[in-house]
Amino acid sequence: MHLVLSVLDSLASVSALMGCRGAPVDPDDRPLGSTRFVDTVFTAATTVTGIQYGASVPLRGTGALPLLLDLYAPADDTASARPVLVWIHDGGFVSGTRTDGQIPRLASALALRGYASVSYH
């Protein structure tokens, strides 16, 4: 449970850095003639990789490993708040990474629609 709370605290900090406050997005922040969160309204996404949000518990004589996340958001977004999607890969944190499968492609595509995404491991 402590890890979950730590992740949520870290996500709140990262969201605040990216301008995400959890409030509804003002419709006036959308480009004219588009539907934010449905249509592609941005031309580029910003990706910040390898943000450390914690450290693992040392097991069997190994040291703690950094816990990292990647953040995807619309580039040049002027909205003061936007939804944040959290991508969790499969593998039970024994296998797999935050960049597995379609996560980067889907997170970037959703950023072009106005969402922020976090993928972590």
Structural features:
2 helices, elongated, alpha+beta, four-stranded mixed sheet, 121 residues
How are the elements arranged and paired?
Blueprint: H1 2-17, E1 45-55, E2 66-74, E3 84-88, H2 103-111, E4 116-120
Parallel strand pairs: 3-4
Antiparallel strand pairs: 1-2, 2-4
User: What separation lies between the terminal Cα atoms?
Assistant: 16 Å
Average pLDDT level: 77
* Number of H- or I-type helical stretches: 2
Please list the strands of the largest sheet in the order they lie side by side: 1-2-4-3
Poorly predicted parts:
1-8, 14-27
Sheet-strand content, in percent, reads 15-25%
* Count of domain modules: 1
Question: How much helix, percentage-wise, in residues?
Answer: 10-25%
- Listing every helix as H and every strand as E from the N terminus to the C terminus, the arrangement reads HEEEHE
Main sheet record = 4 strands, mixed
Query: Pairing-aware structural class of the strands and helices?
Result: alpha+beta
Taking Cα atoms only, what radius of gyration do you get, to the nearest Å?
16 Å
Number of strands: 4
Characterise this structure.
This protein has 121 residues and is α+β, with helices and mostly antiparallel strands. The protein has one domain (2-120). Helices cover 21% and strands 25% of the residues. It contains two helices and four strands, in the order H-E-E-E-H-E. It has helices spanning 2-17, 103-111; strands spanning 45-55, 66-74, 84-88, 116-120. Strand 3, helix 2 and strand 4 form a beta-alpha-beta unit. The two termini are 16 Å apart.
